[in-house]
Amino acid sequence: MDFGYSPRASELQDRMRSFMDEHVFPAEAVYDRQLAEGDDPHALPPVMAELKEKARAEGLWNLFMAHGDWGAGLSNLEYAPLMELAGRSIIGPEVFNCSAPDTGNMELLALYGTPEQRERWLRPLLDAEIRSCFAMTEPEVASSDARNIRTRITRDGDTYVVNGRKWYTSGILDPDCRLIILMGKTDPEAPTYRQQSMLLVPRNTPGITILRDLPMFGYSDRLGHGDVLFENVRVPVANILGGEGEGFALAQGRLGPGRMHYAMRAIGFAERALQLMCERVTERTAFGGPLADQGVVREWIARSRIEIEQVRLLVLKSAWLMDTVGNAAARMEVAAIKVAALEVAHKVVDRAVQAHGAAGVSDDTVLGRLYAITRALRIADGPDEVHLRTVARQELAPYKKKTDPTTGAA
């Protein structure tokens, strides 16, 4: 395994690190203030528009996109540390047009979209002229098992008709959201993993009702997490993505790289929390000396550094495997990093909260928000238990006895 970065990747890291220090971190408080003072809590704050223009002018734009001629053409191994740097700020990924759910949606369009679909949706998404959302999770069923999805996509002549309810449809409340990529069932009688399809649904299509905006642990996200009702929503047959029955396969293709992005972003969260913890304990005095002199605090810091380094290596290994043998062959590692990275990030953030005392649970630092995000992301994009199941099944596979298919005997 070679985790060495190419000269181009190292140069991009230096540029992004400088950009974060010079522009993004100083803008965090401005972003929050503009959001609080605006008329629409979901509208893009002016400072974010300015940051995007600067990032694009400096070539720090669409770095996630490895397909076709649309992005920077970086490998997963080259992109991983860049997402870690961006992830040190909650607003960081959006600055570089590398934030979910748009990244996964753009990859879907790049890989499976028709030329017409790419022209209509992919190009404006790459230019940040519009935003998008992904509608998969449903309130009535355990959506971690795609077989449970109830939303129906029914063919009626030259249109598809959608009926169902989705929630935590992240991004749908952004005024710039123009596209919903929806997953539903086109044929409940088909083989298990050929029942689902993905459909491109324009946001302004009649029959779409946002019932409410869902918070995460009390925090409301600017993009919004919509509880959405689809009632007789009609779109042209040409809006099918990939083809009927390909929804499950497309979802798997979308989620693999996305989980690596989440994992590296989580390491960025952990690094930010560790930095804040170290600053706090060296400045704060209790029981006759700095908190940093307390043995338990030093253990928190040491364990945090060890755990971050361990999980970073695991993520880089996964990225290297995705680049060298493909996403399918790296399935176990990709599942593992989704669990490990968020567990480590949440643990480090928790220690940082404890080190800050009352300030750690307030809104005076970013720690409360990071605590909520790292906990919520252990459910989003597949709960930990689903990924642990994947790892265990692959680990156990060599130990299972081979049986005679005719007699069942070992």
UniProtKB/TrEMBL annotation:
Domain Acyl-CoA dehydrogenase/oxidase C-terminal: 245-394
Organism expressing this protein natively: Streptomyces javensis
Cross-referenced InterPro entries: Acyl-CoA_dehydrogenase (IPR050741), Acyl-CoA_Oxase/DH_mid-dom (IPR006091), Acyl-CoA_Oxase/DH_mid-dom_sf (IPR046373), AcylCo_DH-like_C (IPR036250), AcylCo_DH/oxidase_C (IPR009075), AcylCoA_DH/ox_N (IPR013786), AcylCoA_DH/ox_N_sf (IPR037069), AcylCoA_DH/oxidase_NM_dom_sf (IPR009100)
Pfam family, one: Acyl-CoA_dh_M
Name this protein carries in UniProt: Acyl-CoA dehydrogenase family protein
Domain Acyl-CoA oxidase/dehydrogenase middle: 133-233
UniProt record similarity statement: Belongs to the acyl-CoA dehydrogenase family.
Subunit field text: Homodimer.
Gene3D superfamilies: Acyl-CoA dehydrogenase/oxidase, N-terminal domain, Butyryl-CoA Dehydrogenase, subunit A, domain 2, Butyryl-CoA Dehydrogenase, subunit A, domain 3
Keywords: FAD, Flavoprotein, Oxidoreductase
Ranges where the Acyl-CoA dehydrogenase/oxidase N-terminal domain occurs: 9-128
Cofactor(s) essential for the protein: FAD
